[in-house]
From TrEMBL:
<dbReference type="Pfam" id="PF14403">
    <property type="entry name" value="CP_ATPgrasp_2"/>
</dbReference>
<dbReference type="InterPro" id="IPR025841">
    <property type="entry name" value="CP_ATPgrasp_2"/>
</dbReference>
<feature type="region of interest" description="Disordered">
    <location>
        <begin position="490"/>
        <end position="513"/>
    </location>
</feature>
<dbReference type="InterPro" id="IPR016450">
    <property type="entry name" value="UCP005522"/>
</dbReference>
<feature type="domain" description="Circularly permuted ATP-grasp type 2">
    <location>
        <begin position="60"/>
        <end position="440"/>
    </location>
</feature>
<dbReference type="InterPro" id="IPR051680">
    <property type="entry name" value="ATP-dep_Glu-Cys_Ligase-2"/>
</dbReference>
<protein>
    <submittedName>
        <fullName>Circularly permuted type 2 ATP-grasp protein</fullName>
    </submittedName>
</protein>
Length: 513
C-alpha cells in the first residue's frame, strides 16, 4: 500500500485516505458486519474437518489498470499454452506428441504423472477446448514482479468467494464503490455459461448445461450451488444422470431429458466407474464412452490434471515458446526438478534454504519451508527426496508481497497471493478482472491457503474509465431436477463416504485447492 511512511502508492490513495479517516472502532464494526454477513449466508469452507465462515478481510487489495493488463495478457497466454499442450498429448492417438518429439519435455514425465489418463486419449472436444476454466496462482516477489506459482486446470475452485466478497464489500463500504472506478466481477456466471454452451457437441442448437456436484458433503458445495443458480442451470448429482445409448440423460419430474454439457466438480477418479474407480457413486457410468462418441462435453476435460503437475509446470516457459512462439509474459518461480540428478544434488545441499513441494500437491499439503523446518524434518525430507525424486520440486523462498490486514483491532502486513480466473469459449480467453486474493493470517506465514487457516480479500482492479457491463441474466430454460427414486441408506452412506474421501484426497494434495 505504501511507498514510504504516510505515502500511499497511486492505486491505494483512496483506500488509504478512507482508512485514515476511520477510527479503530469503526473499522472493527465494519469487519464484524462482514463476518456476520458471511455466517448468515452460509459462505463457508472446510478447515480441519469443520465448516467455518470464510474469513474476508476488511481491507481490499487494489491493482492498477496497467498492472492488470500484464496479468490479463499473461494468464490468457498461459491458458493458450496449456490448451496446446493438452491437445498435443491427448488428441494425437497413436502418435508421439510434438513437444516430446522435439525434445521440449520428456515423455516419461508425462506418462508417470498421476493425472495422465490414457482412457481419454483420442477424445477431441467439440470446439477444441479442454481448459474451459483456469485458476492461475500468482505471487508478487521482492522486485514487484508477478510470477506464476502453479496452474489449476482440473477443477479450479474459489470464484464463488470472488463474487461473494464483492457483494459483501459493496454493502459494507458503499462509499468506495461510489468514488472509485472498480471493475465489476458479477459478469462471471454469464461468461462461464457462454463458454459452456459454446462447447456443446455439434448439432445441439439449444444445449442443456448442468453442474455436476459430488453433493452437500463436499466443502465447495456452496460454490456449486451458487454458480448453478446464477447461470440458471440445473445442479445435479451423479444419481440424477444416466447414460443410455451413448447419450447422457437427466432424470426430471417430467421424464428423462438429454444433457449436452456437464460442468463437473467431481474429480477424475470418481467421474466414471467404468473407466476409473469402480466403486464410485459420485459420477456417471458410461460417461467416458459418451464423450468419445461426441454426444456430451465435460468441462473441464478429464485428464487435465497432467498440466497441473508441478514438474510439467516447470516446463511451461519452454512449452509457451514451442507452441506459441512467444516469450512468457508471466515468469515462473525458479524451480529445481528433483528428478534431474544435478538438481537433486543441489537441493539436498541447500534444503534449509528451499521450499520443497510434492508435484501433485495443493493447498499447502506436504510443503516444507526449509528455513523454518527443524533438523529431523529436513532429515526425513532428504530421505524422501532420494527415494522418490520424481515426486518433488524445490524452489527458493519467495517473500510474497504484503497488504495491510485487519488483525486484532489494528492493521498489520500479511502475505498474499492472487488467483485470477480465466474462461475459454474457444474464440478468446477472458480473465475475470479481480480474482481471489488469499491472505496468510498468522504473522510471517507464507502459506495462504484456506485449508491452512488463511483468509481472503476483495480484489479491486481499477479501470481508466467507468465500465458498463450488462447485468447477468439467467438462462430462460431453468428447470428443477428431482431424483426419481429415493436412495437406500447404504447408498447414502456410500455417497457420504466418497464425498468425504474426495475431499480428503483434495486436502492431501491429490486434487486442486
Amino acid at each position: 500500500m505504501l511507498d514510504g511512511p504516510g505515502e500511499p502508492r497511486t492505486p491505494y490513495k483512496a483506500v488509504f485516505h478512507t482508512l485514515r479517516s476511520m477510527t479503530g472502532s469503526t473499522l472493527k464494526e465494519r469487519a464484524d458486519i462482514l463476518a456476520r454477513s458471511y455466517l448468515d449466508q452460509g459462505v463457508t469452507f472446510d478447515y480441519a474437518g469443520e465448516e467455518r465462515p470464510f474469513p474476508l478481510d476488511a481491507v481490499p487489495r487494489v491493482i492498477s489498470a496497467h498492472e492488470w493488463q500484464v496479468i490479463e495478457s499473461g494468464v490468457a497466454q498461459r491458458v493458450a499454452a496449456l490448451e496446446a499442450f493438452l491437445d498435443d498429448i491427448y488428441s494425437r492417438e497413436g502418435e508421439i506428441p510434438r513437444a516430446v518429439h522435439e525434445g521440449v519435455v520428456p515423455w516419461r514425465l508425462i506418462a508417470s504423472s498421476n493425472h495422465y489418463h490414457r482412457a481419454v486419449t483420442g477424445i477431441r472436444p467439440a470446439n477444441g477446448v479442454r481448459v474451459h476454466v483456469a485458476g492461475v496462482d500468482l505471487v508478487r516477489d521482492e522486485a514487484g514482479t508477478f510470477r506464476v506459482l502453479e496452474d489449476n486446470v482440473r477443477v479450479p475452485s474459489g470464484v464463488s468467494y470472488v463474487i461473494a466478497n464483492r457483494r459483501a464489500m459493496a454493502n459494507v463500504f458503499p462509499e468506495a464503490f461510489a468514488t472509485m472506478r472498480i471493475r465489476p466481477v458479477h459478469d462471471y456466471p454469464r461468461m462461464l455459461l457462454a463458454a459452456l454452451r459454446a462447447a456443446a457437441p455439434d448439432g445441439a442448437s439449444d444445449p442443456t448445461v448442468v453442474v455436476l456436484t459430488p453433493g452437500v458433503f463436499n466443502s465447495a458445495y456452496f460454490e456449486h450451488a451458487l454458480l448453478a443458480r446464477m447461470m440458471g442451470v440445473e445442479l445435479v448429482e451423479g444419481r440424477d444422470l444416466v447414460c443410455v445409448g451413448g447419450q447422457v440423460r437427466m432424470r426430471t419430474t417430467t421424464g428423462d431429458r438429454p444433457v449436452d454439457v456437464i460442468y463437473r466438480r467431481v474429480d477424475d477418479d470418481f467421474i466414471d466407474p467404468v473407466h476409473f474407480r469402480g466403486d464410485s457413486v459420485l459420477g456417471v457410468a458410461g460417461l467416458t464412452s459418451a464423450m468419445r462418441a461426441g454426444r456430451v462435453t465435460v468441462a473441464n476435460a478429464v485428464g487435465n490434471g497432467v498440466a497441473d503437475d508441478k514438474l510439467i509446470y516447470s516446463y511451461l516457459p519452454e512449452l509457451t515458446r514451442f507452441y506459441l512462439d512467444e516469450d512468457p509474459i508471466l515468469p515462473n518461480v525458479d524451480t529445481f526438478r528433483c528428478a534431474e540428478a544435478g538438481a537433486l544434488e543441489h537441493v539436498l545441499g541447500h534444503l534449509d534454504e528451499m521450499v520443497v513441494k510434492p508435484v501433485d500437491g495443493s493447498g499447502g499439503k506436504g510443503l516444507v519451508v526449509g528455513p523454518r523446518a527443524d533438523g529431523p524434518t529436513l532429515d526425513r525430507l532428504r530421505t524422501t527426496l532420494e527415494d522418490d525424486p520424481r515426486g518433488w520440486i524445490a524452489q527458493p523462498v519467495v517473500q510474497l508481497s504484503t497488504v495491510p490486514t485487519f488483525i486484532d483491532g489494528g492493521l498489520a502486513p500479511r502475505h498474499v497471493d492472487l488467483r485470477p480466473f480465466a474462461v475459454n469459449d474457444g474464440e478468446r480467453v477472458r480473465v475475470l478482472p479481480g480474482g481471489l486474493t488469499r491472505v496468510a493470517l498468522p504473522e510471517g506465514e507464507l502459506v495462504v491457503n484456506s485449508s491452512q487457516g488463511g483468509g481472503s480479500k476483495d480484489t479491486w482492479v481499477l479501470s481508466d474509465r467507468r465500465a458498463s457491463v450488462p447485468a447477468t441474466a439467467p438462462h430462460p430454460d431453468n428447470r428443477e431436477v428431482v431424483v426419481m427414486s429415493a436412495p437406500t441408506a447404504s447408498l447414502e452412506d456410500s455417497m457420504r463416504a466418497q464425498q468425504q474421501q474426495q475431499q480428503q484426497l483434495r486436502e492431501e494434495g491429490e486434487a486442486p485447492c
